[in-house]
Model the fold of this input.
Amino acid sequence: MEQRSEPRPQEIHPDPARSSEMPYAPAIEVPAGSTIVFISGATPSPLYHTHPHIPEEHQQPDDIREQTRRALENIKLVLDARGLGWQHVVKATKYLTDMREADAMHEVWREYFGEWQPASTMICVNNLSSPGARVELDLVAVAPPVDA
Done:
């Protein structure tokens, strides 16, 4: 895999002095010529599992933080396969079954993303695709042009 370099996506904050108040960027600007990677929704279930679902493959922890870690580790497998990191993620959609768990989910999110804040949407849903899952994350990542 070729090493990818700058230019990279940039956060857009209309009021940069207040950016630390938010766990996401209001918008992201992507350089022309970049490769876009759409990452399917990841839950705490193993990335590869049987369909139709086998209950034994979907033993979920009760803790939303651990569920979030597992989902992000599944996403990391995809990013790693393309030589990308969390800083390449430009858009996230976060699905929770209980919006009261958003702050706990974001605690773990920051462990992975650090200071980088992709654009983001959060949605509360009744159920998710994996039995027992309370969080699902789908992301869009951008790889800079190889010749950049």
Notes: The chain has one domain: 10-143. Residues 10-143 form a domain with the 60s Ribosomal Protein L30; Chain: A; fold (CATH 3.30.1330.40). The chain has a mean pLDDT of 87. DSSP finds two helices and six strands in the chain.
